[in-house]
TrEMBL record:
The lineage of its organism: Bacteria, Bacillati, Actinomycetota, Actinomycetes, Micrococcales. GO terms for molecular function: manganese ion transmembrane transporter activity. It comes from the Bacteria. This is Rubrerythrin diiron-binding domain-containing protein. The keyword Protein transport does not apply. It is a multi-pass membrane protein. One of its GO terms (biological process) is intracellular manganese ion homeostasis.
């Protein structure tokens, strides 16, 4: 015997709101929730409220389309909140605090916003357990997966805007840490005096920072010049009105840029038929392509400063008068902490595990330093 549909919903009587047609109601009609279920539902409710607040806080720091997207995500979290409220009924009790990671994310969103917070929000959406929870609907689980992709798209915009300068900064800091630690360990292992080690470290700092800054400037400048070289010539666009329409050599331009012959012919004919003084043969590179590389000067300055700051860290113990194995140990400890920090930062921005990236960074850095130290011992023994 079928249940009588509830008014306005069309669902069987007793079905909680938020459960889509065809889905099994959770919990079953007449089921009294256990204390464990109530605690879990209240935790989910608190997390949904906290996540909605994060998106509203992020939206308050943005405008236009990004703001609308973030507010739409907050509305979606409110729908999930309604589901847990319906299951809890009179057992909703005093509001709980959200998960500590969600609370931390909210604190960051209120004070900073930016791509770092979006990257953390992306990871938070990826942690959803709705697809394995018996009381969450398939629609809610699907929502969380789509939310992850929405946040990934928003974070990608910020990553693109900062990728050129950020790449130079991370590479500069990492190179400064590893190369100068390796240099100091190698010189120290060879039996050189404390003053020689200190002088070598400072020389390595200055030489490396200048080299990194100059290299980044040339690299990014060359990349942007290559992009500019692909921009159609204004003189070619100005020649369009005088082209032989029957020969239509304009199609060769589009075939050279990758179009199939028939598609190129059609596109060329359309360009000639709709020509105005504003018509260009092909669009120039988008602003996003230039943003991805950053500016040459910005990359150079970031690389110089971050290499110098990274290279200074292993020199600090010697600047403060430490010698021997004590100086080596302190230098290695400081560099290890810095490598963990840079690795975790890269992990956060890339939406992957900060711990994994941090351990990878310190493993590579200490591996290179250890190899140089061993070479220093060999050369020291040989020269001595």
């Amino acid at each position: 015997m079928s249940s009588t549909p509830e008014p306005h919903t069309g669902l069987p009587a007793g079905t909680p709101r938020g459960v889509p047609p065809g889905a099994d109601p959770a919990p079953a009609v007449g089921h009294r929730p256990t204390p464990q279920e109530i605690r879990r539902w209240r935790r989910f409710l608190a997390d949904e409220r906290a996540e909605a607040a994060v998106y509203r806080d992020l939206a308050s720091r943005r405008s236009g389309e990004e703001r609308d997207i973030l507010l739409a995500l907050a509305d979606a979290e409110k729908r999930h909140e309604r589901h847990w409220l319906d299951l809890l009924g009179d057992d909703v009790g005093k509001p709980l605090r959200g998960d500590w990671r969600t609370r931390t994310l909210g604190w960051l969103a209120r004070r900073f916003g930016g791509v770092f917070v979006l990257a953390l929000a992306q990871r938070a959406e990826a942690r959803s357990t709705y697809d394995t929870d018996a009381d969450a609907t398939p629609t809610m689980a699907a929502d969380e997966r789509i939310h992850e992709e929405v946040v990934r798209g928003l974070a990608t915009r910020g990553r693109n805007r900062m990728s050129g300068t950020f790449r130079a900064a991370v590479f500069g800091a990492n190179d400064g840490l590893v190369s100068n630690l390796a240099l100091i360990l190698g010189i120290g292992a060879s039996g050189a005096s404390n003053s020689t080690v200190l002088l070598s470290g400072l020389a390595g700092l200055l030489a490396g920072a200048l080299s990194m800054g100059a290299g980044e400037y040339v690299s990014v400048r060359s990349q942007r010049e290559l992009l500019d070289a692909s921009t159609p010539s204004p003189q070619a666009s100005a020649a369009l009105p005088d082209l032989d329409v029957d020969a239509n050599e304009l199609a060769l331009v589009y075939r050279a840029r990758g179009m199939a012959p028939a598609e190129a012919e059609d596109h060329a004919a359309d360009v000639l038929a709709t020509y105005t003084q504003q018509t260009v043969i092909a669009p120039p590179p988008s602003a996003d392509e230039h943003e991805t590389h950053g500016t040459a000067m910005g990359a150079a300055v970031s690389s110089f400063l971050f290499f110098a700051s990274g290279a200074l860290i292993p020199v600090l113990p010697y600047l403060f008068g430490l010698t021997g194995f004590v100086a080596v140990g302190v230098a290695a400890l400081l560099v290890g902490i810095a490598l963990l920090a840079t690795g975790a930062t890269v992990g956060l921005l890339s939406g992957t595990s900060p711990l994994t990236r941090a351990l990878r960074q310190i493993g590579i850095g200490f591996g290179a330093a250890a190899a140089t130290y061993l070479l220093g011992l060999v050369f020291g023994a040989t020269v001595g």
